[in-house]
Specification:
The complex is a heterotrimer. Chain A has 7 helices and 14 strands. The longest helix of chain A has about 35 residues. A 5-stranded mixed β-sheet of chain A has the order 5-4-3-7-10, covered by helices on one side. In chain A, strands 6-12-11-8-9 form a 5-stranded mixed β-sheet. The N and C termini of chain A lie far apart (about 60 Å). In chain A, strand 4 and strand 5 form a beta hairpin. Chain A has 3 domains: about 70 residues, no CATH class; about 110 residues, Sandwich (Immunoglobulin-like); about 90 residues, Orthogonal Bundle (Cytochrome Bc1 Complex, Chain D, domain 2). Chain A is elongated. Chain B is mainly α. Chain B is elongated and about 65 Å long. Chain C is mostly helical. Chain C has a single domain, classed as Cytochrome c oxidase-like, subunit I domain (Cytochrome C Oxidase, Chain A, Up-down Bundle). Helix content of chain C is about 65%, strand content about 0%. The radius of gyration of chain C is 23 Å and the shape is globular. Classes of the chains: A alpha+beta, B mainly alpha, C mainly alpha. Chains in contact: A-B, A-C, B-C.
């Protein structure tokens, strides 16, 4: 950090976006500082030069329409420039990189829980490798929290019952503060953590040391335990839509609209299945809201994401006419679901 | 400052005004400003309703089928008539027609009470039907969640409307008493006009509430 | 019209009849409909609320001396900042200048005998007191810990404190705001003296008018959203609960739709006061009167369009964020215009540095800093970093405290002779203004740095490296506290021992200075007529000086 050891004045720059945010900051500081200093100097100058010298002074009338128009229009131009700069920086920070390491985040009063795709779980600590884009998929178990890492210049509210996402690229090895920055109750100021950005080898070593079952395999266990496979058999005649290859594809709904099967859609289908019913199916799926917490939902979603179709030629979309008979891969699907009925 | 008894009995020109004309214009203008605030109050609730209806259109349409449409329609007619009565009363005051003034005000009260009576009966029917969120809400079918929100807004907004009607009835009653005592003349009848404005506004709110809750068409 | 203050010689019996001595007794005050007495009733209640809210700030800053949460429990601290916000926003800042200085001076400045609806005015005060009583109840019975913003679902589902009592208190107070605003709008429209056209009105009246429009249009939305929160908390129907079909973001939209215009309710009257002070103490017409009027209305209008900038990282769409960002920049323009106009008014003026002018100059400087830092927050790419940090806290305190509170004190000192018939002690006034200025900057400037470093808001305990800046801030707060205590003491002192004031001790233009100090109950013996523009010092002063020469010679 810049400043004295006990008196930091500026945060570290530890993400790719940090530099851009700081540039914007300094531009704003320059512009506003100049204008502010100008105003103050002129103010002081006038106060000194035109101080009352006699109680009998009668000041003259002064007016200048041109000046007034000038200082109305000039700020407008300056502000438009600043606005565009701000939007530009915002877009750069928000642009989703490919091949991001996806990590799930569940915020709850008053801790941060992280799930790595390979299954590692952390509480209040996040280990990530340097130089690789990271995407956080976040949900709250209870009230609104906010994920804030000052050294990454990164802020995003974490909402209940919905996923929000954020991306960043850590660029510097080290340890950085993580703060919750949306007031969330008693231990709000205790809901802090540390982000450990590591060299790739160190990160790999850390992964190996803390290996557990992967997210998707835990999701598969849940899938069986909750008997999801009794309806989602992967069969063409099944009571429930096929999940293989579903993630990321468009889905035709009963209402005539189309939705994309992203994380939010999958989550909603699990906790509020009647909200969006797939065309051609009955709304018979029960809700699992009270049986699963946010982490378990994320595990199920990881599993569903991992379900790929063996062959890609038949679309996985249920058309308005109802599920198409799919002669290909019946045997494959039977084996995937394990042919079990519970 | 005149005693309150005297205020009920005769016209009072308050000291801050130059003449009755200024007093009347000020009172009327004040009521318009107040109605603007009421517009924003109900408007915020209409906005919240609209947001949720947009998010669950079938649910809201389904819930609307459980409304007592006949009672609602009758009430709409009742309220519109009462506005006509108020307008009659105001006209009476303006031309010094005492009978018209008294008749208009009295009938406004009667119709207002009829409205509230029907509304109370409607609430009772909903209660029997287990449609009161927070109290005994039950709803069969897949739209239970949306229906709960629908009924919440129904009770909240028509309830708020009913509170405004009660206040209006109070105001009209005071006007009736003062009219009976002969306080109002062609020169001084601003209070009647102002109360009339308020009543019309309350009626207008109902004109918006009625279709929004009772007349949602279910698409198939 | 004598420029000098009359000494306080002479027996009490010789004191002329004025609004203060025309009747005595508690009933004559508690049942008054005189706008001047009602203004004083408000002044007393507001001062009490300011002291309570300020005390909470002191306690918070004491806790923040150390990084650990060692003075209070977390729950207590959370209640402190919540109540500090609730009291300061709703029970001090929003009423402050309108209810005290507006009530007292709007009729006087437009040549009227009272407001349009005097009884409604008294009712507004009683409603205020009723709402304040709810807040007292909350304070003594365990507090509320939701933050003044009551975000759901925490406030409706998770908080274990007196949320409903607080929302009810604010709901009630809202009616006081609405009725006050209504009264002002109608008065300004309908009760101006003959010849007093819109563009001859003092800028203080314009500001009160614009403020009243916001009061009247925005407060009902607050009433609606507080109603919804209260019902949700009591009955858990699901209005803002995502698991039951509701949306917590709808709460935020509704809340900020009121609360952003609310900050303009808080600052516009201050700007109006500053316009009065700057013109009087430089003895010059305001530079660009028409532009300032339009800017005032422009701030009120644009202020309704920017609420989403509180929600940039809350989960709104990118396009919404972009729209709110550009609008937030636009609303800064009329404010900038005003600052430039005030500065230009000093050009070729005859500037005196009496206490009110010191507060006005302080306002211009500090408001400029606060307003400029708003541009940082309006920039999307930057807000993602400083949102909900101490940067935001510093920004709004610069405007609310460095701006608004200083304007309130400036206006109080400026009009003190008119309200009380006494001068405040000038030396102490200047000292207090200086102490406030220094204390304020020391308190809040470090918070900009803390914010960019990443210290979040509402933190009871913080990372150790933030300590030095926090200590500086607390030191400043103690100085600021002294600066606020001083006027409390010397203004009270002046009521009995201050020099008696004549009708126009500052030689200011404006109808309020044509009546005696203090004014009689009816304000004017004869309704004045106005036939010239405001702040017409270049013609007004020669007349005054000529009249004095005639007296002397």
């Amino acid at each position: 950090m810049a400043g004295l050891p006990d008196l930091p004045l500026f945060p570290e720059r530890a993400s790719a976006a940090a530099g851009q945010v700081d540039t914007l900051f300094f531009v704003l500081l320059g512009v506003t500082g100049t204008v502010g200093a100008l105003v103050v100097c002129v103010l002081i100058f006038f106060c000194v030069k035109y101080r009352r010298r006699s109680e009998r002074d009668v000041p003259p009338r002064v007016s200048n329409k041109l000046l007034e128009i000038g200082w109305t229009v000039a700020p407008l131009f300056v502000f438009v420039v600043l606005y565009v700069w701000g939007v530009n920086t915002y877009f750069r920070v928000l642009s989703q990189p490919r091949d991001a390491l996806e990590i799930n985040v569940v915020a709850k009063q008053w801790m941060w829980k992280f799930q790595h795709p390979e299954g590692q779980r952390e509480i209040d600590e996040l280990h990530i490798p340097v130089g690789r884009p990271v995407k956080l998929v976040m949900a709250s178990q209870d009230v609104i929290h906010s994920f804030f890492v000052p050294d990454f210049r990164l802020h995003r509210d974490v909402l209940p019952h919905r996923y929000t996402e954020i991306w960043f690229v850590p660029t510097k090895v080290g340890q950085y503060h993580l703060f919750c920055s949306q007031y969330c109750g008693t231990q709000h100021s205790g809901m802090t953590g540390t982000v450990f950005v590591m060299e790739p080898q160190d990160y790999q070593r850390w992964l190996n040391e803390s290996a557990q079952g992967s997210l998707a395999s835990r999701g598969q266990a849940l899938f069986r335990k909750l008997a999801c496979n009794t309806c989602h058999t992967g069969d063409s005649q099944a009571r429930a839509p096929m999940l293989e290859g579903l993630f990321g594809t468009p889905v035709y709904l009963q209402s005539g609209e189309t939705a994309v099967a992203d994380e939010n859609y999958l989550r909603e289908s699990i906790v509020d299945p009647r909200a969006k019913v797939v065309a051609g199916f009955q709304p018979i799926m029960p809700t699992f809201q009270n049986q699963l917490d946010e982490e378990q939902v994320l595990e199920l979603i990881a599993y569903i994401k991992s379900l790929k179709r063996e062959r890609e030629q038949i679309p996985t979309v249920s058309s308005p006419a109802g599920p198409q008979p799919s002669p290909v891969g019946d045997a494959v699907r039977q084996s995937e679901s394990g042919g079990q009925q519970k | 400052m005149a005693e309150s008894g005297a205020v009920l009995n005769r016209a009072v020109l308050e000291t801050q005004f130059a003449d009755l004309e200024q007093q009347r214009e000020t009172a009327t203008f004040g009521m318009w400003v107040f109605l603007a605030t009421e517009l924003l109050l109900f408007g915020a609730l209409f906005l919240a309703y609209t947001v949720y209806r947009y998010g669950a259109p079938e649910g809201f349409a389904d819930a609307s089928q459980h409304m007592e449409k006949v009672i609602g329609a009758v009430n709409t007619a009742v309220l519109l008539s009462s506005s006509f009565m108020v307008a009659t009363a105001v006209r009476g005051a303006q031309v010094g027609g005492r009978k018209r003034l008294l008749f208009g005000l009295a009938l406004t009260i009667v119709l207002g009470v009829v409205f509230l009576f029907f509304k109370g009966y409607e609430y009772y029917l909903h209660y029997e039907d287990h449609k009161v969120p927070g109290l005994n809400f039950e709803y069969a079918g897949q739209y239970a969640q949306a229906a709960k929100l629908f009924f919440f807004f129904y009770f909240a907004m028509t309830g708020l409307h009913a509170v405004h009607m009660l206040i209006g009835l109070g105001l009209v009653s005071v006007m009736l008493v003062r009219s009976w005592r002969g306080v109002f003349t062609e020169e001084y009848h601003a209070p009647v006009e102002v109360v009339g404005l308020y009543w019309h506004f309350v009626d207008l709110v109902w004109i918006f509430l009625f279709p929004v809750f009772y007349l949602i068409v279910k698409h198939h | 019209m004598s420029a000098e203050s009359v000494t306080n010689a002479g027996p009490v019996g010789a004191e002329p009849r004025n609004y203060l001595n025309e009747s005595y007794g508690v009933r004559s005050w508690l049942l008054t409909t005189d706008h001047k007495r009602i203004a004083l009733l408000y002044m007393v209640s507001l001062t009490l609320m300011f002291v309570i809210g300020g005390l909470m700030a002191v306690l918070m800053r004491l806790e923040l001396l150390t990084p650990q949460g060692d003075l209070f429990t977390s729950d207590t601290y959370n209640k402190l900042f919540t109540l500090h916000g609730v009291i300061m926003v709703w029970f001090f800042l929003i009423p402050s200048i309108p209810a005290v200085l507006g009530n007292f001076f709007v009729p006087l400045m437009i040549g009227a005998k009272d407001l349009a609806f005097p009884r409604l005015n008294l009712l507004s005060w009683y409603i205020y007191v009723f709402g304040a009583l709810f807040t007292f109840y909350v304070v003594v019975s365990g507090g509320v810990d939701t933050g003044w913003t009551f975000y759901t679902p925490f406030s409706t589902d998770a908080s274990q404190t007196h949320v409903v009592s607080t929302t009810l208190g604010i709901f009630i107070l809202g009616f006081s705001s609405i009725l006050t605003g209504l009264n002002f709008i109608v008065t300004i429209h309908r009760m101006r003296a003959p010849g007093l056209t819109w563009f001859r009105l003092p800028l203080f009246i314009w500001s009160i008018y614009a403020t009243s429009i916001i009061l009247v249009l925005a407060t009902p939305v607050l009433a609606a959203v507080l109603m919804l929160v209260t019902i949700e908390r009591l009955f858990h129907i699901g209005i803002f609960d995502p698991t039951m079909g509701g949306d917590p973001l709808l709460y935020q939209h509704l809340f900020w739709f009121y609360s952003h215009p609310a900050v303009y309710i808080m600052i516009l009257p201050g700007m109006g006061v500053v316009s009065e002070l700057v013109t009087c103490y430089s003895r010059k017409r305001i530079f660009g009167y028409n532009f300032v009027c339009y800017a005032t209305l422009g701030i009120a209008f644009l202020g309704f369009l920017v609420w989403g900038h509180h929600m940039f990282v809350a989960g709104i769409s990118v396009y919404a964020a972009m729209t709110f960002s550009i609008l937030s920049y636009l609303v800064a323009i009329p404010s900038a215009i005003k600052v430039f106009n005030w500065t230009a008014t000093l050009y070729k003026g005859s500037i005196s540095f009496k206490t009110p002018m010191l507060y006005a100059l302080g306002f211009i400087g500090l408001f400029t800093v606060g307003g400029l830092t708003g541009l940082f927050l309006a920039a999307l790419g930057l807000d993602i970093h400083v949102h909900d940090t101490y940067f935001v806290i510093a920004h709004f305190h610069y405007i609310m405290v460095g701006g608004m509170v200083m304007a309130y004190f400036g206006g109080l000192h400026f009009w003190w002779p008119k309200m009380t018939g006494r001068m405040y002690p000038e030396g102490w006034g200047k000292l207090a203004a200086l102490v406030v200025f220094i204390g304020f900057n020391l308190t809040f400037f470090p918070q900009f740095i803390l914010g960019y470093l990443g210290m979040p808001r509402r933190y009871h305990a913080y990372a150790p490296e933030f300590q030095v800046l926090n200590v500086m801030s607390t030191a400043g707060a103690s100085i600021l506290g002294v600066g606020y205590l001083l006027p409390l003491i010397y203004l009270l002192w002046s009521l009995r021992y201050g020099k008696r004031a004549g009708p126009n001790p500052w030689l200011a233009t404006g109808l309020e200075w044509t009546t005696p100090s203090p004014p009689p109950k009816e304000n004017f013996e004869v309704t004045p007529a106005v036939n010239e523009e405001p702040y017409n010092y270049s013609e007004f002063l020669p007349k005054v000086f000529a009249a004095e020469e005639v007296e002397v010679g």
